[in-house]
Amino acid sequence: MKARMRRRHRGTRWLRTFGVLAITASIGLLALLVGSIVSIGWSALTQTMVTLDVPVDAQYIDSEDIAESNWSRMARDAVATLYPDDAAGPRDRDYREIISRGGISLIRNELTARVTADPSLIGQTFEMRVQVADPFDQLAKGNVRRDTEEQLRRVNDRQIAFFDGLVEQGRIQRIPNIFLLVNPDSRFPELAGLAGAIRGSAFALLVCFLISFPMGIAAAVYLEEFAPRNWATDLIEVNINNLAAVPSIVFGLLGLAVFLNFFGLPRSAPLVGGMALALMTLPTIIIATRASLKAVPPSIREGALGIGASPVQVMTHHVLPLALPGILTGTIIGLAQALGETAPLLLIGMNTFITSAPETVFDKSTALPTQIYMWFDSPERGFVSRTAAAIMVLLTFLLIMNAIAVFLRARLERRW
């Protein structure tokens, strides 16, 4: 008996040891994943800017139509003032490339807005900050090694000396990269942002919620409380459980075939993306709702029926409100899963290059997962850190949604 007891205790110790090792390995791998993402994406949270003195020269102003003035010439002249004496004019590529390719447009648009609103600003000089081009941004962040051979660097020695001179003049600053959240997508890394993707994901999740939430609750209530127990309902239940395990790309193919090809809905629109995600989320909500309804004690139903309530009143006034915490938790977790799905959105075309944020659910748009996919596939170095930063933004939204689910369960849950 003592030998058997020693074997039992030894088995218990081994089981505990394996459990601790498994948890430690899981936490370590999670920390490695998050740490690698943060270490790569951290540099994208700041943006290098150059300060320009932009004069509003009256000779380039069209007094009859201020908006049609030669703003581009004034912006180019402001950039040219940065060039050192050895520059070969404004066409000197080594110096001209320091400003982002969209910088001239940004200066032109801001000048147009300011002077159109207040013509008395003509003749004054504005101090404006513009994003530097991605190679110089990487140089400022230390991602370009100065000791590398010149032909292997994206910036040559002449450009590095020019950039260092601007740093000494105090014209180079690094600021928090708010452009990552407020700018739409761009082909230039220093100008690219997630505004369109965030709004597209929000629209898609809104459509997904408005379809899957009421439909899922209605289906679950009927199957759990009112449907007769026969082979038909058994077949429906089996299929719902199977649909919850179907790969997401299958729902994308279904959305492509039905919503786009058959119904002719607009391609790349959050409306179609939300409908495809609703198909994927619906089984999860039905299963979670049925589990929450089963958790309500039968005495609640019996007491309500005993005082004369109808079956519908029992469900709507008593059972469903008590099951609501579990329903909301399952719904939020299902929406969080839908937020991170990529395959259905790729198949319906939400991976197109869109330079403006959508205004309605019918406008062309991208989503956070597809934006990450597109940036990861881009050859520019600046998109590497922005891809990791976009993953950080996506993980933040997922953590917030899961935190809300945990809070609702803890706040509203009833213990019987």
List keywords for this structure.
single chain; 416 residues; mainly alpha; MetI-like fold; 2 domains; three-stranded antiparallel sheet; 5% strand; elongated
Outline the fold blueprint.
Layout: H1 2-41, E1 46-55, H2 71-80, H3 93-96, H4 103-117, E2 125-131, H5 134-140, H6 157-168, E3 172-176, H7 179-182, H8 195-226, H9 231-243, H10 248-262, H11 270-295, H12 298-306, H13 311-339, H14 343-347, H15 368-376, H16 382-412
Antiparallel strand pairs: 1-2, 1-3
Helix pairs in contact: 1-16, 2-4, 8-11, 8-13, 8-15, 10-11, 11-13, 12-13, 13-16, 15-16
Summarize the structure.
This protein has 416 residues and is mainly α. The two termini are 42 Å apart.
Q: Measured on Cα atoms, how large is the radius of gyration?
A: 30 Å
Low-pLDDT sequence parts: none
What is the CATH architecture descriptor of the largest domain?
Orthogonal Bundle
Count every helix, treating DSSP H or I runs of 4 or more residues as helices.
16
Distance between the termini: 42 Å
What is the assigned CATH homologous superfamily of the largest domain? MetI-like
Largest sheet: 3 strands, antiparallel
What is the name of the CATH class of the largest domain?
A: Mainly Alpha
| Count of distinct strands | 3
Q: Compute the number of structural domains.
A: 2
Average of the residue pLDDT scores: 87
Shape: elongated
SSE string: HEHHHEHHEHHHHHHHHHH
Strand content: 5-15%
Strand order, largest beta sheet = 2-1-3
Would you tell me the structural class of the helices and strands? mainly alpha
Helix content: 55-70%
CATH topology of the largest domain: MetI-like fold
